[in-house]
Design goal:
With 404 residues, the chain is an alpha/beta fold. Helices cover 48% and strands 15% of the residues. The chain has 19 helices and 14 strands. The strands form three sheets. A six-stranded mixed β-sheet has the order 1-6-5-2-3-4, sandwiched between helices. Strands 7-14-13-10-11 form a five-stranded mixed β-sheet. Strands 8-9-12 form a three-stranded antiparallel β-sheet. The chain is elongated, with a radius of gyration of 26 Å. The chain binds one RNA strand of 89 nucleotides through residues 163-165, 225-227, 236, 250-251, 253-259, 282-285, 287-288, 291, 311-312, 315-316, 355-358, 360-362, 364-367, 378-379, 392-395.
Length: 404
RNA sequence: GCAGGGGUGCCCGAGUCUGGCCAAAGGGGCGAGACUGUAAAUCUCGUGGGCGCCGCCCUUCGGAGGUUCAAAUCCUCCCCCCUGCACCA
């Protein structure tokens, strides 16, 4: 094991806050002295089936803990997900059924294993202990927390002040999470800075129950591709860990320039001084490098190269992508006269447009090309044959397979 | 239970008092085009459906009826949501 100070230095990098810092160092020292690893906890919410690179920020930090010899425990919040989580958004998250939760939780393993060391990762479900608590025990647990403590949480106080909805079970959620820490005897709880309240409540609850309090370890939140909100699936501004390489690369290329620095720091292994030099160059080249680095982590170097090639081919040079989806069209079904058919109907049949009106719009806007020839007459009739390439907009390509 | 505020197009949100000019402002998102450094940034246009379509028609504003030549807008009943008060072993 590395000396505590060295570990501390490595781990601290990239974090926003460690509460309290000196206690964390003490724990590390003790761990080194006794040879006992720290128990580092992370709660994951199974209400979303996919992990995205926002989650990876925290997972990557956990990997560092693992590599330093500590024990990482992932808690799938299956029980809390069935209660529904106050997400900090205006609305509360839906309460999931047991089946949904289980389905989602199962897909997690393969995803976080791209980052964590599987053999060193312990996974538990918090329903294991939370579902066994009696109501009496719950009330006793709740007695350890005051209402004003809970109302300190900004999200709660704001909603209360503005007179919007706040339900009792939402207040219980942080208590569940806190109790997880008690059960696990967690030394450290990892989380995004938005988890501050919940994690510190865990610390508080441990103390009240006579256990050694955990340290809160906070990572910054990754801003999503929209450049405004934190990355989340529901906002659609995310890049999923399990997404195919080309898609991943493309999505990353669509982020605002200003985000690049954060992404380099939080999502890649590129050393800081190198990041600076990359960012001082051409923004597009920098972004390509960033996208490449991230794709490489999840899919390997070869796939990353391929994704980059594809991107340059399609968007920079505006050439055909390597694999163009094929669509079978039936002339008789669409309705043709002497082999010619209405372009607008064709677009609908392919599924590119959901209505005739939309098809007309696309055509008139100049979005439709067949074999490189733009067609702008919405009443145009075209003659198509198998192998014809249709392009709709900048990045939709279709190879036609014609049947009579 | 009582009082008040709401339910509008993918989302948010005007419009309701003073019926028609409302397929319904504005913003977001999304789509397209131009430009370019990319699915960055910026600018422009579009964003219910049907019709060979610069006009006409159809279906939309929680639900069901009604008044009217005409209703998102007025009336009746119903459903749902939120807030406050009351109740509170």
């Amino acid at each position: 094991m590395l000396p505590a100070e060295v570990q501390f230095h490595i781990l601290k990098r990239g974090s926003v806050e460690i509460v309290p810092e000196d206690e964390f160092l003490e724990k590390l020292k003790r761990s080194v002295a006794t040879g006992k690893p720290l128990i580092v906890k992370l709660g994951l919410d199974p209400s979303v089936p996919d992990l995205h690179i926002g989650h990876s920020v925290v997972l990557r930090k956990l990997r560092q803990f693992q590599d330093l010899g500590h024990e990482v425990v992932i808690i799938i919040g299956d029980f809390t997900a069935m209660i529904g989580d106050p997400s900090g958004q205006v609305k509360t998250r839906p309460q999931l059924s047991r089946e949904e939760v289980e389905r989602n939780a199962r897909t997690y393993a393969e995803q976080y294993c791209k980052i964590l060391d599987r053999s060193k990762t312990k996974v538990t479900f918090n329903s294991e202990w939370l579902s066994k608590l009696s109501f009496e025990e719950v009330i006793k647990l709740a007695s350890n927390v005051t209402v004003s403590q809970v109302l300190e949480r900004e999200d709660f106080s704001r909603r209360l002040r503005s007179g919007s909805e706040l339900r009792l079970h939402e207040i219980l959620y942080p208590l569940c999470q806190a109790y997880d820490s008690v059960v696990l005897n967690a030394d450290v709880e990892m989380g995004g800075i938005d988890q501050k309240f919940n994690i510190l409540l865990g610390r508080e609850l441990q103390r009240r129950l006579g256990k050694e309090p955990q340290v809160g370890f906070f990572m910054p939140l990754l801003i999503g591709l929209d450049g405004k909100e934190k990355m989340s699936k529901s906002l659609g501004n995310y890049v999923g860990i399990a997404e195919p390489p080309k898609e991943m690369f493309g999505k990353l290329m669509s982020m605002p320039d200003e985000l690049m620095h954060d992404y380099f720091i939080l999502c890649t292994d590129v050393p800081e001084d190198e990041i600076e030099s990359i960012l001082s160059g051409h923004p597009m080249e920098a972004k390509k490098r960033l996208a490449w680095e991230i794709v490489r982590i999840y899919h390997g170097e070869e796939e990353a190269n391929e994704a980059k090639d594809e991107f340059e081919r399609v968007f920079s040079r505006r050439e055909l992508p390597t694999d163009v989806p094929e669509v079978v069209i039936s002339l008789s079904k669409i309705g043709s006269e002497d082999g010619k058919l209405q372009l607008a109907r064709l677009l609908c049949a392919i599924g590119v447009a959901s209505s005739g009106r939309e098809a007309h719009r696309l055509i008139e806007q100049g979005a439709v090309e067949i074999n490189g020839e733009r067609i702008t007459d919405r009443f145009a009739k075209v003659e198509v044959k198998t192998g014809d390439i249709m392009r709709v907009g900048k990045h939709r390509w279709i190879k036609l397979i014609v049947e009579s």
